[in-house]
Amino acid sequence: MSRRATLRLLLLGLLLCWCGVFLRSENTEKSIVRALLLEQTPAQWNVALLYQFPEAAADSSDAAASVQLCAGTGKTLEQALFAAEEHLPQRPSYRLCEYLFLNTGSLWGELSACEPLFCERADLRLATRVLAVTPGCEELLARAEEEERFPEQLLQCAKDTAECAPHLYERGKGLLLPVVQLKEGSITLQKEALLLTETGTFSLTEEETEMARVLLEYGQEHTFIVEETPITIRRSVLGVQAAGDGFTVQLTFQKKAASATPTETQCRKLEALCVETVQHCWDAGADILSLGSVRALRNGRRTAFLTAKNACPAVQADVIFRG
Question: Quick check: pTM over 0.90?
Fold first, then answer.
């Protein structure tokens, strides 16, 4: 065997050894954290972790049954997180941590505290999706001790809601948070969402929630009840144009196959709902359509910058159904 061939075999062997060590350290020797749950009370911070046993392959579909929940408390968020990590079987790995649950009791305080932590720690990701949860960490931990599959169900609820949940880095437009609650022994998702902005937390109606998700382009299929008739939208195309001192919102919907085409009256009611939702969110401090950016692109710096601190500009909606 030539010297070059021997060197190649040696390098291949070293590569295989390195891959084996890497895979083992990333999977079997670490607890894979899948979700963070944060709760701030007047006296302390509570942190819960949804994690998988280190023996489970985190990328494997049969690892779901191994999902567990542990919790910790502390005077600061960092102390509470460290206390929760102390309960893990092995060192934590956050490479698959895709969900952040914030307790509805103090959403803005929790968000303001956790964002710098996510920026400072390289193992935590700003791309994490954010949800609100009504029960506190203590109640969740008690439920996990009573029901073996509760942590798995909580994680599955987050997965099912992912397309409607905002990323942490999207807070500039306000966060439209899906709300997870415990009801009658099950984990459910409220039909109404919470809008979290710098000025506070605001509740949206079921109809406003669905329209806001359309305007934010969260999810593909949406259902509205108009004149007691369900209208299911399979796909939507959104367009925003500056028109004088106001804006025109163009919504082109593709209706569900084999369903009746909405009437003119129903289209007008959807247009009114669109305008109402934009104005409600604007008054809450969220420019969900980025109207300020649209105005700046058209007028440049010749006009005052439009922000949600100003009065909501005039908005007109135009709804069209295709197919």
Answer: no
